[in-house]
Amino acid sequence: MKGLFIISGLGILAMLAEIFKFKKALFPMVLLGVLAAYAFNFTEWNNNMNIPMFSNMIRFDNVALAFSGVILATAFFWFILANDYFEHDHITDHFALVLFALVGALMLTSFTNMTTLFLGIEILSIPMYVLAASRKRDLASNEAGFKYLIMGSFASGFLLFGIALIYGASGSFDLMAIRSYVSHSGGDLPIFFYAGVLMILVAMCFKVSAAPFHFWAPDVYEGSPTVITALMSTIVKTAAFAAFMHLFLVVFGKVSDSWSMVLAVIIALSLIISNITAATQQSVKRMLAYSSISHAAFMLMAILANNRGFGSVNAILYYSLAYSIGSIAAFTVLYNVSKNNDNVTIEAFNGLGKRHPLLAVCMVIAMLSLAGIPVTAGFFAKYFVFTTMIGTPYKWLIILAILTSAVGVYYYFKVIIAMYFKKAEGHHEPIQIETSHVVLLVLTTLFTIALGLVPNYVIEIFS
Amino acid sequence: MLVGLLIIVPLIASLLVFFTKGDTSRKVALGLSVVEFALALAVFFQFKHNPASKDLTLNCNWVESLGIHFAVSVDALSMLLVLLTTFLVPLIILSSFKNEYERPNSFYGLILLMQMALVGVFTANDGFLFYVFWELALIPIYFICLVWGGENRGAITFKFFVYTLFGSLFMLVGLIYLYNHTGFDTGIKSWAVTDLYEAGKSLNLNQQSFVFWSIFLAFGIKMPIFPLHTWQPNTYVNAPTQGTMLLSGIMLKMGTFGLIKWLLPMTPLALEKWGWLAIGLSVFGVVYASCIAIVQKDYKRLIAYSSIAHVGLIAAGILSANQQGIQGAVMQMLAHGVNVVGLFLIADILLRHTGTREMEKLGGIRNMNGNFAVLFLIIMLGSVALPLTNGFVGEFLLINGIYQYGAWFAAFAGLTVILGAVYMLRSYQAIMLGPKRDSAIAFGPLASSDKVVLYIICFVVIAFGVYPKPLNDLAEEGTKAILTYIK
Fold first, then answer.
1. Taking the C-alpha atoms of B143, B148, B151 and B155 in order, what is their torsion angle to the nearest 10 degrees?
2. Euclidean distance between CA atoms A346 and A287, whole angstroms
3. Inter-chain residue contact B132 with A402, CB threshold 8 Å
4. How many angstroms away from the CA of A406 is the closest CA of chain B?
5. Residue B73: which H helix or E strand, with range?
6. In which domain, by residue range, is A245 found?
7. How far apart are CA B372 and CA B361, in angstroms?
8. pLDDT grade, residue B325 (50/70/90)?
9. CA separation for the pair B242, B435 (Å, rounded)
């Protein structure tokens, strides 16, 4: 709860920094602020803050705190990554936008009312539209922002329509009220209630970019500046999944018959389309965009499993943490490899093993983690999803996930092969890398391995 | 606790080696791998004299809520394979002293890392831990082949990686499936190997068949068994010699060991139903690979195919699931591990001294270096399983075991004796005998490191051919333990 206030305050502070000329001090202040928010997160753990706030709009229970923790940790890493890029480019505006997006993300972990859900999604999305288009003179960046805006608004429309239908049936925006309405109806729900559920499902699938609602993702990822892409594929995803999970496990869990088959088809499509398309990409950013669709499909599998108890929640929490950390590492390497040229092909990685061994090793670990090889975090993430799924009637999805994972290895390893096997052609400037980025890379890499060695600290949070 | 050290020492060793530079890397690596071998011998003596000792098991929680334990222990079977691994790794490192590799610290570091994973695979007593080590063994060898391999290594090692990973993921599903069926009476799920055995036996035939084939796929690819072998010849030929030695000498045994410990006792019904098919594929692979080996021109590729033939026989023996079959398979795994390392070293020596491995261009080397000819002959005879060499005991028991399963299977598997002799003797004749070719002229005396390795291997070939009892006793004990689970 206090974390939410701190981040909001930081956002306002960031805007003031331009006027009162303390731009230089902004970066350390933001880092400290995020850390402070994180610390408050800890103190609220298991505390009596479980009560709903603002007339039942928001509630920071332990699940919300855990996801906020993932988001804040990722944000901390992300600010270290982004400082270098924004240093000479309106750092105050950009940081303010990111901080407001964070506010939206935190709301999405903790909403208890449909209106807060909508507010959270809009507060998260609108800064992202602007950030996607933040390279004002670049056509691709403008296109990305515009596409993101149109597609995002379209999804918001769906979401609103769905909320309205559910309100029509249940007479309430409050999640607990809707939940008790569902359980008391005894299966006798009006047909437009189900329509509302499916519309919300579609809207959320837009937000997490699951196929067939994924068409915006590759273009937006590719067009946006690399650091913003990193933000989209980590924090935005985690927040969207926290919301998705909250809606479909807690509120609509009882009517899972109506949406589980649809979700299964969406997952299957996402797995197939994303992995096969990713394998043919030359641009690394586009490849990562498609791979993020496949990771979304994995997290959706945990939602589909709809585990009683905390199996699904734990799996999604662990997955989003593992994926966020791995992505931040990968994007940091990508950013440093591509500093002057924002759209890098895999050839840009040629010979990186010799040109900059540290970057190469960190990239290897990140790729291994994303591909799900033990003992990295990514392996356990996939493993936990499999264990939630194996008791369900959707075992065929596991087989499909395995087959497509093998394809996944192909494109992740293309990068590794390029780094160690291919020779760099022509003359390359030696790669200069900021000390803060070295620290960031080492931290994220160690974190990836540590998460793989002792997954119990995360996976046993809720039991 | 000792057994924990067995895993930790190579890990620390590999980290140490990563921080060395240049020539010291291989010396440090060799020294540390000898230490590991000494440690394995210590474990062996402990095992001999005090089998109930606490030193031989280690069991601590890893992920408690999921029943995952870091459980390792040494029994007769794993003891043999740990001895094989720790014995071969110093030889493999020593055999590389004449090769100049770029970035030697990474090269030797990866070899030692791989050793850690291999020892882990052979000692793991927890299904999950087994899987983790199994996958972990793949990463170092992938990089060894990718960075230090020959022409066109990118595509070849990639095929190898995807094949094996694909198989392993299916194994993971099979294991999770078993895990999900554990603990019906207690309600507590567990990854412990004996609980998985129980879970496997409680399944009906269809469920067992699913588990059998999904796990068999992983082992079949690793060994490899026909028709899953297509990654193997190219990978063996293109990998650096030490990589090939690791792959064929030790890593291949992961598959056969897996069959014995992680598949047979879990799915007895499925084995009864599908055993004929699995054995049929293995036996077919024996004949098929032998025939292809006969027409090979490159000596290294010939050994690669001979390896498929040998492993096919081993797999058939294991799948016949009787005392002789499994015991013979264990003996043959040990013999093949030692012999194939020797043969690949010989291929490497040929290449280094003459610049080619093409048998047509070789010939008459015996006239230049009689010493080498004798060493080569001994190892070659061990590989064709002449009596009084180490290969004989295993092969004899294997064919005996397969015969008990089915006479026709044994008849075809027995062809390996004839075909093996054909390609091995012919290749020896082509390389060593006959008139001196141009390529042989440059063949000088052997480097001392190569000599040491070859002498040690020849000693093992003869010593355990004449007196196989210590190994045979252990193999018998291990086999009996497994058979009590199957019956």
1. 0
2. 9
3. no
4. 6
5. strand B68-73
6. 2-459
7. 18
8. very high
9. 31
CA distances (Å), origin A410, targets A236, A255, A306: 26, 38, 31
Nearest to A456 among B64, B143, B170 (CB): B64
Instruction: Assess B462–A contact: CB distance below 8 Å, yes or no.
Output: no
Q: Is the peptide bond before A212 cis (omega within 30 degrees of 0)?
A: yes
User: A67: which 2 tokens?
Assistant: 């996801």
Q: What is the mean pLDDT of residues B374-399?
A: 91
The answer to whether A379 contacts chain B (CB < 8 Å) is yes
pTM for the model? 0.86
Distance CA A32, CA A10 (A): 10
Q: Counting every residue, how long is chain A?
A: 463
Residue with the bigger pLDDT between B150 and B390: it is: B390
- Which among A50, A131, A376, A100 is positioned nearest to A239, based on CA atoms? A100
H or E segment at B72? strand B68-73
Q: Residue B58: pLDDT band by 50, 70, 90 thresholds?
A: confident
Specify the number of domains making up chain B: 1
Contact B193, B261 (CB under 8 A): yes
pLDDT tens digits along A367-412: 999 998 887 899 989 988 888 887 788 878 888 888 888 888 888 8
Q: What's the domain range around B437?
A: 273-487
The 8-class DSSP code of residue A348 comes to: G
- Interface contact B169-A405, CB threshold 8 A: yes
Contact residues on chain B for A402, CB-CB shorter than 8 A: 166, 169-170, 173
What's the average model confidence in pLDDT over B69-73? 90
pLDDT average, residue stretch B297-311: 91
- Give the span between the Cα atoms of B261 and B257, in whole angstroms: 6
In a domain, B451, yes or no: yes
CB contacts under 8 A, B 44-83 vs A, are: 62-66
What is the DSSP track for A48-107? GGGS-BTTTTB---HHHHHHHHHHHHHHHHHHHHHHHHHTTS-HHHHHHHHHHHHHHHHH
Residue of A nearest to B189 (CA): A387
B147 has a chain A CB within 8 A of its CB = yes
Considering only CB atoms, B173 lies closest to which of A391, A398, A406, namely A398
Smallest CA–CA separation between B454 and chain A, in Å?
32
Average pLDDT of chain A? 88
Give the C-alpha separation, A24 to A17, whole Å: 9
DSSP designation for B56: G
Residue among B63, B132, B135 minimizing CB distance to A459? B63
DSSP A407-420: HHHHHHHHHHHHHH
